[in-house]
Amino acid sequence: MIRTRLACYYGATFMMLGVLLPFWPVWLQSRGLDAEQIGIFMASGVVMKIVANPFVAHLADKHGERKRLIILLAGLSLLTFSLFALGQSFWSIVLINCLFVAFWSPAMPLQESLTTQSGARFGFDYGRVRLWGSVTFIVSAVGIGHFLEGRSSDLIFTVIIFTLLLTLVAAFLLPDFRSPTSQQKRLPIIDALKDKKFVAFLVGATLIQSSHAVMYGFGTLHWKQAGIGSDVIGWLWAEGVIVEIVLFIFGPQILSKIGPTRLIALAGLAGAIRWVGTGLTTDLSALIALQALHGMTFGAAHLGAMHFIQDRISPELSATAQGLYSSVVTGVGMGITMYVSGYLYSNYEGQAYFAMGIMAAAGGIIFFLLRRKTV
Description:
This protein is an all-alpha fold. The protein has one domain (2-176, 187-371): MFS general substrate transporter like domains (Growth Hormone, Chain: A), CATH 1.20.1250.20. It contains 16 helices and no strands. It has helices at residues 2-30, 35-63, 67-81, 90-104, 107-122, 126-148, 154-172, 188-193, 196-210, 213-225, 230-249, 251-280, 284-291, 294-312, 318-348, 352-371. Helix 3 runs antiparallel to helix 7 (154-172) and helix 11 (230-249) packs parallel to helix 14 (294-312). It is globular and about 50 Å long. It starts with a helix and ends with a helix. The relative contact order is 0.17.
C-alpha cells in the first residue's frame, strides 16, 4: 500500500513533466520568445533551485518532515503556474517561472528522500516505485503529442494546470513517514560537503545530467524545424523513457553486479554517443536509435545517484543530500548549461549537441576515477 501511494505521486508528477519538457518551449515560442530568450527563461527557473532546494531540505531534515511540506509546495506550484495566463512581457514570464520553480523544484528531492528511506525501512526497491513516474511520462508525452497535432499551443498550458492539480491530490495520499531529525547545530549541508567523494559525485553527476540541456530546451523545436510532426516527437520522447522503465525493473540485479558508480560512468559514455549522434542527424531512423540511450543518459545516471546517496549519506542528512544533489546538478549545472545552450543553439543549431557530448564524457571519466578510488 505504501508503494502504491508513493507511485501515485510519481505518476502525477511525471505526467506533468511529460507535457512540460517536450512541449513547454513550443508554448514559449508561441508567446514570441526566441531561442536565446527561451534559454534565459529555462536558466532563470533552474537557478532558483540553488536557493530553494537547500533551504527546504534543511527544514525537512531539522523537523524530520516530508509529506506536509510536499503538500504545501504542490499547492503553491499550482497557484504560481496559473499566473502564466497573466504574463504579457518576457520579463514577467521569467519572474513567474522563478516563483513556480521555487515551489515546484524542492518537492522532488523530498519525495526521493521519502521513497528511498521508506524502501530501506519497509523492504522495497526504489526503482520499481519510481518507474511508474516514467510510465505516466510516456503516456503524457505521447498523448499530448497526438492531441496537439493541428491544434492551438494554448492547450499546453491548460493540460499542465490539470496535471498540477492531480499532483496536489496525490500529495495528500503520501505516507506520513518521518525521518530521523538532524541533531547537528551547524547546517547539515556543511557535513555533507565535507565528504570529498560526495563532492566529486556532485561534479560528475552535474556534467552528465546538465548535458541534457539542449535536448530539454530545444529538442522539440529542432525536430519540428526538420519537419517531424508533434505526434512523432511525442513518441521520440517516450521511447527513451520506455528503456528507462526496463532499467528500473532490472535495477536491483544491475546494481548488485556493477554498483552505482560504474552505472553512472556508463551513463556518461552513453551521453557522449547520444549527443554527438543527435547533433549529426535528424534522420528519423537514427533518432529512434539515439533516443533509446535516454534509458542510460538519464535513467542509469539517476538510479545510480539515488543509490549512491542512500549508501553514502546517513538518514538524518538524506533530505539535505537530495536537496544538494538537485540544487547543484539540476540547479547550478543545468541553469548555466541551459543559458549557454540558448546561445549555442541560436548560433549553431544542432551542432550545439556536440558540447553536450563533451560534458557527458567528462562526467563519465570522473565516475570512472571514483570507481578506481583515485579521487
